[in-house]
Each structure stands twice: as C-alpha cells, then as structure tokens.
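TEACHING EXERCISE
Course module: macromolecular assemblies
Task: Read the component lines below, then compare them to the predicted structure of the full complex.
Student: A.B.
Group: 4
Components provided:
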Amino acid sequence: MAGYLEKIEELAGQARQQIARAVSLEQLEQWRLNLLGRKGQVTAILHDLGQVSPGERPLVGKQANELKNEIGRLLEERRAALEKEQLERAAARSAIDVTLPGLRPWTGSIHPLNRTLSRVNEVLYSMGFSLAEGPEIEDEFHNFDALNTPADHPARDEHDTFFLEGGLLLRSHTSPVQIRHMQANPPPVRIIAPGRVFRRDTPDATHSPIFHQVEGLYVDENVTFGDLKYTLEQFALRLFGPDTTLRFRPSFFPFTEPSAEVDCSCIFCKRKGCRICKGSGWLEILGCGMVDPSVFEAVGYDPERWTGFAFGMGIDRICLLVHSIDDIRLFLESDTGFLSQF
Amino acid sequence: MNISYKWLKSLLEFELTPQQVAERLTRIGHAVEELTYLGSGFESVLAARALKVSKHPNADKLKLVEADYGATETLEVVCGAPNVKEGGLYPLALSGARLAGGMTVEKVKIRGVESRGMLCSEKELGLSAESAGLMELDPVWKPGTPLAEVLGREDWMLGIEVTANRGDMWSHLGVVRELQPFVSHKLRLPEAKPAESGPAINELTSVRIEDPEGCPRYMARVILEVKVGPSPRWLIERLAAVGQRSINNVVDVTNYILLELGQPLHAFDLDKLEEGRIVVRKARENEKIFTLDEVERSLGTSMTVIADGRKPVAVAGVMGDKLSEVDERTTRVLLECAYFNPVTNRRTARALGMFTEASRRFERGTDFDLMPYAVDRAARLIAEVASGKVARGVIDICPRPLLRNEVRLRRERVKRVLGVDFSEKEIEKLLSGLDFELEKEHKGLFRVKVPSSRTLDVRREVDLIEELARLWGYDRIPVPRRLELTPGTGGINGGPEWELRRKLAGMGYQEVLSSSFVDSKLIEKIYGAGRFEFWRLVAPISKEEDVLRPSLLPMLLACVRRNLNQRRRDLALFEIGNVFDRHPGEKGSGEQRRLALAVTGEYRPVHWSGPAPRQDFFALKGTLESLFDWLKVPPMRFAADSHPVLAPGTAASIVHDGEKIGVIGRLDSGAAAEMDLPAEICLAELDLKPVLASAAMPIYRPVSQFPGSRRDISILLGENTSCADLIEQVRRVSPLVAEVTVFDLYQGDRIPPGKISLALSILFQSRERTLRDEEVDRAFEEISRSLIEKFGVQPR
Ligand SMILES: [Zn+2]
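Instructor-supplied answer key:
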C-alpha cells in the first residue's frame, strides 16, 4: 500500500512540474493526455484501485481522486495563462507605431481677404443687410455724378481713377452699387455691396491699386444719424467683440452729409496704446454719413420723405489689422506660403 | 496744410495748448495728423555770454570760458573753437542736452579741467552740415533765453488733413475761424490799410477783364520804390515754421498772405509788363507762355490768362511767367488779387498738369469778400518789408459779384436727420459761433446768411445740418436702440459662390486672388492675336499691366510659376473673379464672373505609405465632377476640343445645356515655354453664372432596400470611341442599371494596336424588389449585344 501512496506522491510532484513548464498549448495537451488520458498515469492508478487491499482502498482512492482533481485544475490554469500569452503575442505582432505621420489630404483654404469679407458679410447679414452686386467696369454717372461728385469737383482727386479706352472707368469705390440698387428698387433699402475697387495708387506696403471694399446702405423713413451710430456700434461689437467702442469724427465725403470717419478702439491694446495703433488707442476702420439729398434726387427718391445712411470700409485694411499682416501687396502675390496660413 | 501755432495766436487770443488745439480741430472734422514741436533738439540749450576767455592750463588749443547763462552763477566750460571772444553770445548746451546733431552733452573732464556744458556750432545743433566755429547769436538777446526762442522755433506745427469741401481751411485764418467756438475772444484781423503816397494807381496802370466768367473780380495795387532783397527775420521764421523757404521780401509777402488768409496773390514787375497794363482774357489757341518753373507751355482757348498789352504773363490762378517775375532790379510792383472761377481754374491746372498752391485754393473757392482786405494788407506789408510806397488807390473790377448764400433751415428737419431735438436758441448759438448770420423767419424756420469764406461749401439746408452736428459733437448725438437688426435675405453663407469657395478649400484647393491687370503682349503671345477684344487702360501703372484680364488663366499660371519658383511643386489653386472681353456680341461691357483652377504635382503630401497619384487631367476633371454633383447641376458634358493654351488632344470644352461654358486640359508646351513653366499643369476655367444659376436644392430619393447584383464586362474599343457614349448606351438599354463604374483601362501589347480595353462594372438594382438572376443576366446580355451593334466593340 505504501507503494501506491508513494507512487501518487511522486506522480503529483512530477505532474506539477510538467504542467508549470508547458510552453505551448500543444505541449500542455500532451501532458494532459499523459496524465488524464485513457492511458494516462493517473487514470492507470484509478484503474488499479481494485488491487489495493480493502482496508487501504478508501485512503488510496481519496488520494488518487484528489490528485486527479488537482491536475485537472492546474491544467486549466496553465491553459488560460498560455492562451493569454498567445493573444498578447499575436497583438504584439500586429502593433503599429502610432507616432508615424498620418495620411493627410492637401488642405486648401479661402483667401484671407475673402475670409475677412465673409465674416463682415455674416455680421451685416445678421443685422438685416442683404447682398447687392454691381459691375467693376462703371460709368462716370454711377461712380461719380450720381454720388454728388460732378466733374471738376476737387473730391475727385482722392480717387485717382483708372479710365478705360472709350470713356468707361474701373469703379473707384463700391458706392456705385448703391446707385444701381436704388435705381432698380424703391425704398426702404438695407443692402451691403462687397467688391473689388481700383485706384491709381503707387503700390507700397499700405497701398495697392486694387483693393476691396464693403459698402452698406440703409434708407427708410425717419432714419437719423443716431441710428447710424447704433448700427455701426452693433456692427463693431459683433465683429470685434464685446469691449469694442467707436469714435465718430466729422469728415467729408461728397455723397454723405454729415459725414464721419469712424475709429474703433484698438483691438490689440484695448485703447492703452500700442505699435499697431501708433499709441493712439484707436484704429481708423470706416467712413460713413447720412445719404446726401442730392444722391436721393439722382435716383429718384424723395429726399424730404426718405433719409438714410451709408458706410464703407476697406476689407484689405481690416484683414491686415486682424491678422497682423504688414504688407498689403501680399494679398495679390498668391504665394501659398502666405495664403496657406489662413 | 501746415499750420503754425504761434501764427494762430497772432490772429486770435486763446489759452488752448497746441495739444488742445489739435484735439479740438480733430473733433470738429479737421484731423490733425501731425503735431511737431519745432524747438526739439534745442531743449536745454540757452543763449550764453562769454564773460571771460582764458587759456586752458594743460592744452594749447583749448580755452576756458566763463559763461553767463542767465543764472545767478556763471558756468565754466572748455571750448576749442577759434571764434570764441569775450562779450560774444553763443548757444550753450547744458549737461543732459540731446542735440539734433546727434550728441548728448555730459559733464566731462577735459585735460584735467571740468567742463559743465558745451558751446555749440551750427553743425552740432543740426542747423547746418558744416560749420567753422561757434554759432554766433545776435547780442540783443538776454543770456538765458532758450535757443528755440532766439531761432524763432518756440512754436508747434500742426499738420491738418483738409477735406475736399473746405477750401477755406488752406489758411491760418480758416483754422482760427473754426477755433472761435472754443474760446471766449473774437477773431481780430490786424490793421491792413496802407499809407498811400505818390501818384494814383490809375495813372500807373489799368486792368480790363475780357473773360468775366473766368475772372469775376480782379483787384490790384501798385507799390513803388520797392527794394527787393532778403526778408526780415520774423517773416523768414513764419514761413519756416510751416516748412516754406524764403525767396525774397516781395514774394515772401505774397506767400505769407496766401498762408494767412488763403488768398493767392501775384506780384508782377510793372516795368516788365508791355504797355504797363493788365488784360484778363481767354488764351488763344496754342498761345505760348514760359512759366516760372521754366517750362514753355502751350495754352488752349478754354484757359484764362493774365496778359499785358501783348502777351500772356500768367496762367490765371495757376502760375506766372518768367519774364514778368519780380527780381532784384524790380522797383515797381503790380500786386494782383483776384477771384478765378473754380471750375475753369481746375480744368486749366489739370490740362497743364500744374497743381500749385494758388490753384489748390482757387479751385476750392476763395473768399470773395476778403479780397479788399487781403490786397491792402499785402501792399502794406510789401511797403513795410521792402521799404516801398503804396500808390494811391486800388483797382477793383468786379463784373460778376458773388453774393453770400442764404439758406433756409428748419428745426424739424435737423431733428429728422440727426435725431437731436435742438432748441432754436441752441441752433443760433452753434451757428453764430462760426459767423453764420441767422434771422428767424417764423417759428422753427431760420434764414441763414453764410460767411463768404464758405460760399462753395454751404449752399443747402443739409450743409447747415452738418455744421450743427459737428459743432455739437458726434459723440453727443444720442443712440436710439430702436432699429430692428434682424437677419436679411440671401442666407448667412452668402449664397452659392461662397459655398463653392468653402467646398473647394475643403477639397484641398488654395484660393488665390490675383491682379485684374495683365500684359496684352503676353496674352497675345500665348493666345494668338485677335482672340480677345481687350479693355485697355488709358494710363496703366506699367506697360505690363495695360489691359483688363480677359481670362483668369494667365494670372493663375503666374501664381503657379511663383510657387514653383519657391519649390512648392504640388499645387492645387483656384480663383473666382471677373474677366473682361469686349468682343463684339458680348452684351454690355463683357464682364463675366469665372472660376479657374490649376493643378500640378502630386495628389497629396509625400507619405511613407507609398507614392501618391499625380494631379493630372482626370484629377482636375474629378474635382469638377464632384463639384457639379454637389451643386446638383444637370450633368455637364466634357467634349474633346482645342484651345490655344491647352495641349492638342488633352483639351476639352465643358458643355452645359448645349452651351460651351468652360474649358479643361493640360497646359500646351508652347504656352508653357512662353511663360517659363513646365507643361505638367492642368487647367480649367468656367463661367460661374450658368453653373450657379442651375444649382438646385437636393431632392431626396429613397435609398433602395434591395440588394443589387454586379456584372463585369471588358470591352475592346477603337481609340476614337468615347467612354461617355459607351456608358450612356449601357444606361439607355436597361432601366435596371443603377451604376456603371470604369474599373480598368488597358492599352498595350496584349491587345491589337489602336484598341483600348475598358472594364466596366455594372450594378443592377431596383427600388421595388430583389432582382432575380435570370432578369439580371437577360439585361446584361442585352447590353452586350447592343454595345456590339452600336459600336462594333468586342467583349473580351
Ligand atoms: Zn493699440
């Protein structure tokens, strides 16, 4: 009997070692067959129980069964561990270097001037202005005469106009769109007209013979200078943010009276004074005024009944300011190194 | 306009500082863009008298000077200048002074002796480029007087931006008038009546006006026994303070009056006038005049001239001639003070390309009623500074008197325009501050007499309303928060053009904007002459920018070249803009909105995963197809075509609704060479209007719930058969075809030469049910048969 118990003991030690050392599921399966298979060693012991004396039989049987259970348990544990290892190894084989660069498409962008224009349009749209358009080739009537700037008026000096062969001209501002719109539509009017304009300026960092403007026009009964101030204040708040304040300075434009230049509190220093605003705390951003009665007469509106205001601003200038660009010529140079920054 | 602060003070008593003057003027519409202290560089420099000059103990060439500089104690300075003398008055820079010549004066030991200041030369003070010794000052000045004062530089210069409507602001008088509302004193013009003596003016000369339209009023005075020479110090300093050079005493006075009163004057040497008289008339055709700037000019009959008995001696209100100029031998001066028609004057100046200080003022309208004062004051000053005698009397010929404007002003209208309800009292107070004379016609209605200096500018009620607004202050106009600022029409995104922009940017295209001006020569070289009827600029900035662009492509190619030169070899660019072609048949000015695209290089940035496809014709075509698809425009046809800048065999026109609306293709090698570009650039350009006009709202169609089945077919077709025809035929034959994809193309050794093998994958699908195999097979067979019949193609 002692022989049986010893044999069980010996087998247990051997099985524990073998199972723990199994390196693959296949090997483990081999050990399982060797131990618990139909011809396995533990199976053999259980099979031989009949030959053990009846007195010892319960003890030997108990030991043998415990051994069988223990081996079953160890095999199961080892199998789980090996399976986990195998999964991990598989995962490791298909791992990627997540720090490698991604596959990017080209990223295009909208021209910074149009980006600025779009923002201005959006703000003015939200304030009730609708888009109007007009041609870049204009005639003297729409560009000057109807805007109270007859030939021989010194104000024409400020628009060094490009004339075309045949007497037409390139519009020197977007204001002729006002005229075209009013000629075609009865009041009330609430429009904006963005577009390209042309003046014979010598190109330098702040001047370009080709630049871009947005013009606004509001005509109704009982529109006052106070309403003009309100509208532009709202515009500035929505475009530049909640701390923005405006300053209105008297000025002169032939087609508005009274006229004003409008300064906006510096968006960089909040009026403390900086390099951009040349220490003044203010940035000149637009011109405006009450529509001159003679403009209404030119388009057939009754100036006694209708009043209104107009305002205009340079998109190039606003774009330069907002993005800290120091040379207006960059806009038309089409260098993608510049353009792709926007 | 440059304005001297001291000059203003000589016309109006006030307490405002130069900064306050600048602020007030800016506030009422005269932007002061520059405020310069003229004494800068002379701070801490005083007049000092050399009391004692002795030898420096340790140096032969140096002297010790004991200087009285107005303080209780004297100051010892070391000086090396040869001209230092006891009793002389010199500029003394105290330690700490920063001189305009660039030096900062410090307390220093020179050869063992401490020098606590420096006596200065003109060079050290920045007054001249070279100087031999110390600057010697007029000994009448008291020691301790600031040098700025000695030099007449204790002054500020205000640079005012004058708006085009305010001719009156081109003078100190005009500025003073605008300051009046801010001060308690009234403007006081200096006494002007000259002491007259000798012969009466009518015995000396005569004036006749033959062109009353061009010259409504002409006044003249004669000054005798004039000694032309340098001006007195005060006059030189006044002119210098506003940046003007002194010429001689007579000319300086005319300039002085121009700057003070805004009235241009002209001084003739009476002895150089033939027949000693003045005739104001129209110029004769091609009449010649040799003007003061020493150019011979040819005149026209619309111009007004001042002539003597025979010939023109001045272009009226623009410039005098060289021959009648006042020079050092002149003794008898005829002084002209006239009013010239602003419009005629401007046209003349423009025609001659001469914009002078005089013409600038005449074309903006001078002060008609001020003329008698101006001519008197000028005559008096000339007599004073050139020790002359003013002849008795004044000539005043006035065929067309210019009356002061009278304008009605309604209180109610003021309120309607400004939104400010002024009382009648306030209106009177504000306007009379600027010398407007108000008379109440009845309640709420004034009759306002406008000062003669504002005749051209204030003619209507609204002009007075503007005066009220700026005097009241724009910041004080209340802001009624009553306008309803609710969204407008047209959509927040600005319509389909903006959508297109955003879409293209999202597809990787960079938007560019380029010049509207192009070189007609280059365009004709690459397009051939006569293709476009250019819009030519009358005066282009350069000859390479002489016409308006008839197409976006040339400038887009220039953009490509620019970027290729920067070694950016992969590009996808687009531009939206107007082109101009006045070709007969074009309506109006032939202005058209276009979209242009250009691609070159690879389809995406270099990547480790492998090479990217090229951006070729089909990449560009695909972009357009996607765009059209997304805009929901009806299908566009791409039809083989030819185009001057596109390579033969790679050009196509884009056809919409039977009309050619654009082109696409690869850049032709000839054009590429002309523009110094490689030829692997693909281009497209199309008219935006028809595309955007036919863009439609997407309409939902239920997605089929039933599986489709695919059949593939390979077809050998001749090179002249187009793929589009093939696909169209496939779709036409069977309604069950949902999609046709070209998934392979082969051209080469394995098939007969001149043939192309196309592999199509056809998806059969129905919205109502699952298709049975037999149905699909039947449809597929029908398609194969029809393709053979129609094109003679051989399925492989
Ligand atoms: Zn700032």
